[in-house]
Design goal:
Layout lengths: L1 E7 L3 E8 L4 E8 L5 H15 L5 E6 L3 E2 L4 E2 L6 H4 L4 H5 L7 E5 H12 L8 E6 L3 E7 L2 E2 L26 H4 L2 H11 L11 H4 L14 H9 L3 H25 L3 E5 L6 H11 L3 H6 L6 E4 L6 H13 L2
Parallel strand pairs: 1-4, 4-7, 8-11, 11-12
Antiparallel strand pairs: 1-2, 2-3, 5-6, 8-9, 9-10
Helix pairs in contact: 4-12, 6-9, 9-10
Length: about 325
């Protein structure tokens, strides 16, 4: 079998052809259709028409609170303006004549790791996906935990500092890759639009001088490695926010393993830095005689959501 796998991120839609063993034969990238449901559906149908006759199903990963059995999107993260409250399957009726599946991106990522990745064989585990937002997924008793309202693992909505209930205090803002870049921009007196961040996170921000360069996460980590004091101070704060999420997942879930994913997890220093910050929690763990939880990176980084989307399709259509 062959699938069109699609991962709707905050900046781009990644897509590929993938078989039932997670082997990828073709891939591409399209700007994120954030403004309307028509644009969103057109991305799917254009790719469907391109690969029609070659594929047996379409497997979609995207942000939001999603009922994967009905296709209803209670919310849609960066796509809320375009897709919030809509039913994806209804929108695709008459336009696509092969089975379509959709799952939350964090849940898709943890499914990928459970299927063929760092959580394979793990009964209780969790994934934190660091990207445009902060995705999460939980495996309990060997199965994906969806929650009573399909919102289990929505760690983007955790608050970092008690008493501040604004969007600026969400884990999605303070511990995501977009959050890191936006924090660096603010600390350096730059507009966040000078960085490769989600359009959803830069609405209302001033446009930069078109002659100025656009910086990526790789650039920011180069500044960190070079010891730039402003960037390093921001990174320390960002790292503490991220580890705060790790600690809370460890204490609430008692998993065997927590895995970190997203493009930033490919940076060789991230895991070591997270473990060093997490080690400051050791006195509490020891004081409560708590068993250790392994912290690792995901096997799948850029492809995790697409791999998990295909596994979700297989689970729903077996």
């Amino acid at each position: 079998m062959k699938f069109l796998a699609m991962d709707f991120g905050g900046t781009f839609v990644k897509h590929c052809l993938m078989d039932e063993d997670a082997a990828i034969t073709e891939r591409g990238e399209i700007p994120a259709p954030l403004r309307s449901s028509d644009d969103f559906v057109k991305v799917i149908t254009d790719l469907y028409e391109k690969y029609k006759g070659e594929i047996d199903g379409i497997a979609i990963s995207m942000p939001g609170v999603i009922d994967s059995s009905t296709g209803h999107l209670s919310s849609a993260g960066a796509y809320t303006m375009a897709m919030g409250g809509k039913n994806l399957f209804e929108l695709l009726k008459g336009k696509v004549d092969i089975p379509v599946s959709v799952e939350n991106d964090g849940k898709a990522a943890v499914l990928a790791e459970k299927w063929k990745g760092s959580l394979e064989g793990v009964t209780d585990g969790a994934a934190i996906i660091i990207g445009s937002g902060l995705g999460g997924g939980i495996i309990m008793d060997g199965k994906l935990r969806k929650g009573a309202h399909f919102a289990s693992g929505e760690i983007s909505g955790l608050f970092v500092t008690p008493g501040n209930y604004g969007f600026d205090n969400l884990a999605a803002t303070g511990a995501s890759t977009t959050g890191l870049l936006a924090m660096v921009a603010a600390a350096k007196g730059m507009t966040p639009k000078q960085f490769e961040v989600s359009e959803f996170m830069t609405m209302g921000a001033p446009d930069p001088d078109p002659n100025l360069p656009i910086y990526s996460g790789r650039d920011v980590f180069e500044w960190i490695d070079a010891g730039d004091p402003v960037t390093c101070a921001v990174y320390s704060k960002w790292l503490a926010n991220l580890v705060w999420v790790v600690i809370n997942m460890k204490m609430m879930l008692d998993p065997e393993k927590i895995v970190l994913g997203g493009g930033v997890s490919r940076n060789p220093r991230l895991l070591a830095d997270v473990k060093a910050e997490y080690s400051k929690f050791a006195p509490i763990l020891n004081g409560f005689s708590m068993a250790e939880t392994a912290i690792e990176t995901c096997k799948y980084t850029a492809d995790a959501n697409m791999v998990g989307a295909v596994y979700n399709w297989l689970l729903l259509n077996k």
